[in-house]
Design brief:
Helix content is about 35%, strand content about 15%. It is of the alpha+beta class. Among the domains are: about 70 residues, no CATH class; about 130 residues, Serine Threonine Protein Phosphatase 5, Tetratricopeptide repeat (Alpha Horseshoe); about 130 residues, D-Maltodextrin-Binding Protein, domain 2; about 220 residues, Dipeptide-binding Protein, domain 3, CATH 3.10.105.10.
């Protein structure tokens, strides 16, 4: 390669390197400002402002070094040149020798440094008439002052802070930091900005943001003037508010954060004393003075302030006297009684009242199963006549007498009285011809047709005949007590909690830690129930959301149980609404729903499985009534829009508006907005309305009118449950006209035929036919089925991993006392 070629290659490489550096992201040349705008330094090309001694101002590109060194005063120069230096031995040399005189050698002139003169490059042309000359040397002595670009940005940021424009002020400070992180004054201004913005946010009510900014400042400079007092005042306000709302765990967490900043601050000491005082005051409120009231007072006191050794010792002593199981639920039986109108009733009623038969086994018919009233059930006249022999020695909880045949006979008759919708069962009224006691221990039932499954009709709770319609007796003008025969009695009931106490026979004396008291506490939101369980306030959780099961299972202190029956989610439709009686519209609703997508994205938050999958009917997959070969319900939004438009024309309606009532269950609350959105895309307006689950189910079963209702169902026996699963008011009194709520006349016809089936083979075949035709008729909109779970803490011993109902076997459960401690104090 020649020299010239080498030079060209080197020049090309240098050019490419220059372009690469110029285009590098670090330089951000494409977005860097190229125009000097002194009025807006944030958008300006960097410049310095120099004021000369004649007060003229020039804008120059940033000088170097930054900042400039201080100027030095000029040194005085000598007036004469130095004389030549003569050697000591003289300056006369011998002939031929060099002169010994050292002539004067002037010193080389030293170049002036930045303390004397600087090179400047004008940032923009000035009206000087000097053409393109922009590079100059400027003596420091001719400069009055220089304002660096960084200082200009800081000054502008200070003005913006004063104007409460904190965002733009931060942008100015950020540009200074990008140019020189160590620029003098930058750190102090950032601190001042954090303090000012945090204080302003607190004043505007944005306490969370204000405290975040002030805590950031505290991490940078803990000794900032007035910072700790400002933080303490803000925390004190939030903690006082948490105390007012009884959010004691949140208040203690905030107090812990405040003490981490400064434990000696006055507010921290006062708030700690306030918590302790509230705990002592609550512990002193023992109500009637019973051990249960004392235990509740101590438990509430320790929830206010767990780190109280004296109260904890008293709590453990009271707990050992009456071991209490607290269960977190989202609905309670309101009120409890001898009826089954909702899932909450099904949980509680079986603890308060014994049924005639515990199950459908031969042992139960012979009276060999505990927890039932029947000593024996005789069947004669081809199953049309039943004689129930009532066990002796089963007292009512009020101690007035034992359960007798009169009580059983009255319970059967009450279920035929349409004036009592809480107990009335239309199908039972159609079955029963006569019920009469033969003597003190025998009841005769005359039936119009044989029972396919006697236990299905004989497992309802039996109330006392001497009690009122609500199962209560009058004790005083203000007190009415529920009378039962089960292993527990109801001590108190309210819309937010139910308190049950074990009877003497149920509690026994085998173990001092056996559960003697059950408290169901209703939380307004599923997240609140979950939080109470995770804190340890509740030892059991009635329902685990599907997307939380794996998280809870990973906790070594938590155990997960599974209900024996899966939960089937459906949208019930009221055919009494002419809009929903239109089959075209029902098909539009079905096609609008992406079942698999909603199940995986919203309900499970993961892939579906053989147990958690979209539903094609009301019966669970794999059930005996699950028709084989039924195609899954499709999702077709385009067809949904077309069908909805066709339905509007058929109904001659300008718009389609419906109301969707749903219970406050975690997964239901999550998916309902997605369902409303899917219906809206099909041009169907749906208004969601949350209703407590017990209230919703009770009213639906009583025959109340509705549009759409989200229901979570469990199927025990499809032949007997089909009617209630498809038509919520199937057993409602005739005055409610609930059978008209069946949106499909064809399905209603099949249900009525199913009721008349006298043999199991024909009944099961009819149930399969209902499942097959339900896909096309759509009297309900099937959604999906999921595994239903519950959870309990390890301090509770006895719950099974699989159970029909939540409290199966509760008579043998044992529980140990436990206080929910804060994480930082464990």
């Amino acid at each position: 390669m020649t020299i010239s070629a080498l030079h060209r290659a080197t020049a090309a490489a240098a050019l490419l390197l220059t372009l690469a550096v110029a285009a590098s992201p670090a330089q951000d040349a494409a977005r860097a400002p190229t125009v000097v705008t002194p009025d807006d330094p944030l958008a300006s090309f960097p410049f310095d402002r120099i004021t000369l001694v004649d007060d003229s101002v020039i804008l120059v590109e940033p000088v170097s070094p930054r900042p400039l060194p201080p100027t030095e005063p000029p040194k005085a120069e000598a007036g004469r040149l130095p004389r030549p230096r003569i050697p000591f031995e003289g300056n006369v040399g011998l002939p031929g020798e060099a002169s010994k005189v050292e002539p004067f050698q002037p010193a080389a002139k030293k170049e002036d440094g930045p303390d004397v003169v600087i090179n400047v490059h004008l940032a923009r042309e000035t009206a000087t008439g000097r053409g393109d000359a922009r590079d100059f040397k400027l003596k420091r002595a001719h400069m009055k002052r220089i304002e660096y670009f960084e200082d200009i940005l800081l000054a502008e940021g200070d003005k913006l802070v004063q104007a409460r424009d904190f965002t733009r002020a931060f942008e100015h400070y950020l540009r200074v930091r990008q140019r020189d992180p160590d620029w003098p004054g930058l750190t102090d201004r950032v601190h001042a900005l954090l303090f000012a913005e945090g204080k302003h946010a607190l004043g505007d009510g944005d306490v969370t943001r204000g405290l975040r900014l002030l805590r950031e400042l505290h991490a940078r400079r803990p000794d900032y003037p007035g910072l700790v007092d400002q933080i303490a005042a803000a925390y004190a306000g939030r903690i006082d508010r948490a105390i007012e709302l009884a959010l004691y765990p949140e208040g203690r967490r905030l107090l812990h954060e405040l003490e981490a900043i400064s434990a000696d601050v006055r507010q921290a000491r006062e708030l700690r004393e306030k918590f302790q005082g509230l705990a002592k005051a609550r512990a002193a409120q023992v109500g009637s003075g019973s051990n249960a009231d004392r235990l509740d007072a101590l438990a509430d006191a320790l929830r206010i302030w767990p780190d109280h050794a004296e109260l904890e010792a008293e709590y453990r002593k009271a707990f050992e006297a009456e071991p209490t199981l607290e269960v977190a639920v989202t609905d309670v039986a309101a009120p409890p009684g001898p009826w089954l109108r909702s899932p909450a009733d099904d949980r509680i009623a079986r603890l308060l009242f014994r049924p005639v038969l515990a199950d459908d086994s031969e042992e139960a018919r012979k009276g060999e199963r505990p927890g039932q009233l029947a000593r024996e059930v005789e069947s004669t006249d081809l199953g049309r006549r039943l004689v129930v022999h009532v066990r002796a020695g089963l007292p009512w909880s009020d101690g007035s007498r034992d359960v007798s045949a009169l009580d059983v006979a009255r319970s059967f008759v009450d279920r035929c009285d349409p004036r009592d919708p809480a107990k009335y069962q239309a199908r039972w009224a159609d079955l029963l011809d006569r019920a009469r006691p033969l003597d003190e221990r025998q009841v005769e039932l005359q039936l119009r047709r044989p029972l396919l499954r006697p236990a299905f009709w004989l497992d309802a709770p039996v109330g006392a005949a001497h009690a009122g319609a609500d199962g209560r007796i009058v004790l005083s003008a203000k007190e009415r007590r529920l009378v039962g025969s089960g292993p527990f009695v109801c001590a108190a009931a309210s819309p937010n909690a139910i308190d049950l106490r074990a009877t003497a026979d149920a509690s026994g004396e085998a173990s001092t830690s056996k559960v003697r008291r059950l408290r169901e506490v209703r939380y307004g939101a599923p997240s609140a129930a979950m939080a109470a369980f995770l804190r340890g306030d509740a030892a059991m959780l009635g329902h685990v959301p599907p997307d939380q099961a794996s998280k809870l299972a990973a906790n070594p202190d938590v155990k997960i149980g599974t209900y024996a029956r899966p939960a089937v989610h459906v949208l019930a439709l009221d055919g009494r609404n002419p809009i929903l009686r239109n089959r075209t519209l029902r098909r539009a609703l079905s096609y609008a729903i992406d079942r698999k997508g909603l199940l995986e994205e919203t309900i499970l938050r993961g892939p579906s499985s053989e147990s958690d999958l979209p539903a094609d009917g009301v019966f669970p997959r794999g059930n005996g009534a699950d028709a084989p070969g039924v195609k899954p319900l499709e999702h077709n939004p385009v067809l949904a829009v077309a069908l909805a438009s066709l339905a509007r024309r058929e109904l001659k309606a300008e718009s389609l508006k419906l109301k969707l009532e749903y219970p406050p269950i975690a997964e239901v609350e999550a998916v309902v907005p997605r369902l409303v959105e899917a219906f809206a895309q099909a041009r169907i307006v749906v208004e969601p309305v949350a209703v407590p689950r017990s209230k919703l189910e009770s009213e639906l079963r009583a025959g109340r009118k509705f549009d759409m209702a989200y229901r979570v169902l469990r199927c025990d026996e499809p032949v007997l449950d089909a009617g209630l699963m498809i038509c919520p008011g199937y057993d409602a009194p005739p005055s409610a006209n609930a059978l008209a709520s069946a949106a499909s006349p064809r399905i209603l016809q099949l249900l009525l035929q199913l009721e008349q089936a006298a043999e199991w083979p024909s009944a099961r075949g009819m149930a399969v036919q209902i499942d097959r035709e339900l896909r096309d008729e759509l009297p309900v909109i099937p959604l999906w089925q999921t595994v239903d779970r519950y959870a309990w803490r390890s301090r509770l011993r006895g719950p099974a991993e699989t159970a029909e109902r939540l409290y199966d076997g509760i008579e043998t459960w044992e529980i140990a006392p436990w206080i929910a401690k804060d994480p930082w104090s464990r």
